[in-house]
Design brief:
single chain; 211 residues; alpha+beta; L,D-transpeptidase catalytic domain-like; eight-stranded mixed beta barrel; 5 helices; 11 strands; 29% strand
Length: 211
């Protein structure tokens, strides 16, 4: 059972009541909190410079009963609900809130992870430069180095079909307020702390299904 709870912390309802209600619902659905991953000194320094926003509680990171039926190690992205699942053994999965492609730029399909990078360099794709000419200087300079201002955030998983780079990534973000929305140019955005957790769990060659 998957419950999509979208109660904002800033609502007029008492925070304690929200947390109690959430705990009751999550307990009934067999949800478990997932501890934050360990961070390097660079991770901590850069992530402290990214805006700290309050997200909907339903998009936090949880271990849940696996709703996908896929084999352990598989990543499933639900672009309609804006959730990503990393499948664990014993019919469990970790669910993360994500931002996905807007209607005009959404992508679905199957791929594999053939490259992983920490605080990756971002090179805006040519079609993005055509849409947004202000990115031409960034492209001409060879892209933007990794750091808190980089839109790829703390980690990136590069998705391939055979030997072809799809140009789509699962990556962090410097705009965590967009999690839970369809706003990207097709890539899958995660909170930086979440993409570090996923990066640590994902082996090279992992199967990714975006649907």
């Amino acid at each position: 059972m998957i419950v999509d709870i979208k109660v904002k912390r800033g609502d007029m309802i008492s925070r304690s009541i929200i947390i109690l209600a959430l705990a009751i619902v999550l307990a009934g659905c067999n949800f478990k909190d997932v501890p934050d991953p360990s961070l390097s000194s660079r991770d901590a320094e850069f992530m402290a410079k990214v805006p700290n926003v309050e997200m909907d509680l339903g998009y936090d990171r949880y271990e849940i009963t696996d709703p996908t039926g896929e084999t352990p190690g598989t990543i499933i992205v639900d672009t309609k609900a804006n959730f990503l699942y990393f499948v664990l053994p014993n019919k469990r999965a970790i669910r993360y809130g994500v931002a996905t492609g807007s209607e005009a730029f959404g992508w679905t399909g199957a791929a594999v992870v053939k490259r992983k990078a920490e605080w990756p360099r971002w090179m805006p794709p040519s079609d993005m430069v055509e849409r947004w000419p202000h990115l031409r200087p960034t492209a001409a300079a060879g892209g933007l180095g990794g750091g808190p201002d980089n839109p790829l955030g703390a980690r990136a998983l590069y998705l391939y079909q055979g030997n072809r780079d799809t140009l789509y990534r699962i990556h962090g973000t410097n705009e965590p307020d967009k999690i839970g929305r369809n706003v990207s140019s097709g890539c899958i955005r995660m909170r930086n702390i979440d993409v570090v957790d996923l990066y640590n769990r994902t082996p090279m060659g992992a199967k990714v299904i975006v649907r």
